[in-house]
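hiii, so i know i said id send this last week but things got crazy w the move. better late than never?? heres the sequnce for the chain we talked about at the cafe, plus the structure i predicted for it. fair warning i was half asleep when i ran it
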Amino acid sequence: MPDYFLAEHFAGKLGLSQEELADFEARGVIRRVVKNERRYYSSRDLYRLKAVLHLVQGKGLSLEKARSRVDGAARLVAVSGQ
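okay and structure toks below
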């Protein structure tokens, strides 16, 4: 079961603003969970967004290409049972 982080802590770990988080959420890169009127994101979302940001910022890929690569890698890991 993944850990969950408050939105502000999640954003801080990635060096992002709340607006940037909302943008990534609107684009379907991450999904929030709302509990007691507070937004949370999972550790899975943290690692996924870190990988996407690395590919976008470090490798110059578009957001869509980065998402596709990260999702493809996650499917390979799931299929191989690792």
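btw The mean pLDDT is 90. thought thatd interest u
miss u guys!!
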